[in-house]
Amino acid sequence: MKYSNIKALIFDLDDTLIEDTKGWYLSVVDVCKYIVKKYKPEGNCNVSEMVQCYEFVSNNLWDRYDEILKPLGDSHKIRSFVWRETLKRKKIYLNSKQINELINTYSELRNNHVIIQTYTRECLKKLYIAGIPMAICTNGDYNLQKNKIEKAGIQDYFKVLTCGIDIGIRKPAPEIYKRCIDELKVDINNCLYVGDSWELDVLGASSLGISVAWISDTKQSDYSKFVPRYKSINHFLKDFMSHIH
């Protein structure tokens, strides 16, 4: 059987278990609406322009995480820095109280835009009842990811939540997967890691010798020669559950 040796599952969270890119974008749009309305940027900057500015700044800074963001420390400081850098480009300068208010607004909005499929939630519950130990391994920060999991209604099904920002190790570094497995207290040979990113999830987990299932509807089917590939998390869950009964 394909998964006969698998006794435990480790999932990526964002864009694997939940549809995070859509939720993230909706949250950014709402925050930018808030900024434009409250602080009235120079040059008649509209919401769309503010969103584009944030995406540009955020992507550049996160691409240089180890160099620029990691030394800042906790996730609140990182998030504050990214928004400050965005606003500076639009000549908006906020004091500490105002930036904290903005970050709190962003966090609340992120919680309001958590999207999970009903079938996904139902399958996770069945796996939990079946006694399959499960964990989540993510690059996000603990408070935000914990809130997403609770909003999705799946918090009771996972024994471990490993968050890269909080422990100072981010995927695809092998140490983050090992830490997750150690906390889950299972044998690495009996684990299956499930994620959507080829670099962060598939290559990262594989480098430690963990079996991997890739969630991707990519047309680059050559990659699927190396690992099982599924069009969606629900396709994987349906297949996996058919092998454990």
UniProtKB/TrEMBL annotation:
Name the needed cofactors. Answer: Mg(2+)
Under Gene3D superfamilies, the record lists:
HAD superfamily/HAD-like, Haloacid dehalogenase hydrolase-like domain
- One Gene Ontology term of the molecular function aspect: metal ion binding
Sorted keywords for this record are: Hydrolase, Magnesium, Metal-binding
Identify the InterPro entries for this entry. Answer: HAD-like_hydrolase (IPR051400), HAD-like_sf (IPR036412), HAD-SF_hydro_IA (IPR006439), HAD_2 (IPR041492), HAD_sf (IPR023214)
Biological process terms in GO annotation: small molecule metabolic process
Name this protein carries in UniProt: HAD family hydrolase
